[in-house]
Each structure stands twice: as C-alpha cells, then as structure tokens.
Amino acid sequence: MSAVYDCSCPETRAEGLAAAASAVRSGRLVVLPTDTVYGIGADAFDSAAVRALLRAKNRGLDLPVGVLVGSWSTIDGLVLGVPPQARALIEAFWPGDLSIVLPHAPSLRWDLGTTRGTVMLRMPLHPVALELLRDVGPMAVSSANVSGRPPASSAEEAQEQLGESVSVYLDGGPSGEPVPSSIVDLTGDEPVLLRAGAVSAEAVSEVLGAPVKTAA
Q1: Domain ranges of the chain
Q2: In CATH, what is the architecture of 3-179?
Q3: What region holds the YrdC-like domain (predicted)?
C-alpha cells in the first residue's frame, strides 16, 4: 500500500524522506516534488526499477528517462566529459529548471531507455528533492503522470494517476504553474534547444555567448 508524507511538517518530512530513501534503495518507485512539476523516480542504476517507472507511466523505452542529481560534482562521474558550455550553463542555472543532454560515461551500467549513449541531467531547485538525491544518489525521474495525461502539479494529482504503482508519495504542496524544464542538447557540434520551458532560449544564448539553435 502506498504511503503519503506531508513534507510541510518537519517530523513527517523526515519520516517521508527516510521511507523514500528506503524505497529507492529497494528498487521501488517514489513521487517527489521538484521546482517544475512532480516527478516519479527510481534508482538510476536499477534497470528493473526504471522499467517499472516506464510501466507506471505507460511509456516505452523510446522515450528515455532523465536523471536528477543532488550536486554539481555528481555529473563528473556520469558523463564522458563536461565541456565548457555545460559548465557555464550549470553555473548559471543549477539548481534550477534547465536539463542538459551529454554523452554518458561508457562505463556506466544503466538502462534509461533508448538514449543512444546520452543522458539528460538536471539539478532541481527544491529542498525535498535535493535532500533525497543527496541521500540516495542519482535518480531516474520523469513527470509524475500517465503518458498522454497532464503532468501532476500536486501529490494528490500524482496519486490519482499512478496509484499503488508508487510506494512513497512526498507531498511538498502545489508546484505552481506546470512548466517543464528547458532542455539543451550539447552532444553535437552546436548547442540545440530541444524543448523550450522555464528557461528561455534568450537566457541560454546569453550564457553561451551565441544564439542557440532550436530543434525542428
């Protein structure tokens, strides 16, 4: 049976974070608040848990899951290299609502879907999410909704869609406007804005010092 924890109360927040960490380490799914919309998450290195996440969302491997991290330094062990453009974007927007796509380290044994050797990374600006990530390490996280339905902006909305497929729901209150993170792909010769979201193309271009292409 799923458990819901009110993270506005210090005691239940601590209980919830402990329960969520235990769930992640045992291969189960959790719902957590982020600075954009609510997310459904699992241990990024547990392939069975990631597949369970995709099943809960009714989504296929062709739409891979991104990874949330709890600190800047975490990404050094996850990617093939961190180019200057990525460092500049991280310093400007992390923690925050910009996701960055980079080639992942070939030594990593994970299965996030059909990623073609890449990984999408983000450090969220939310205290509950950051505390959990710093405890359990990188998590595979997608928006907390069934594919084709609106992303959840509250724990209640997430529970209504995902139900008992999730072991622990961390309720951080309403997320506000359900605006997704922006996504910048740095795997090619030039940066490409794959998704315009909370961070504008103009803001990304200003940091990079050059106009950023927009995906067709």
Answers
A1: 3-179
A2: Alpha-Beta Complex (3.90)
A3: 14-199
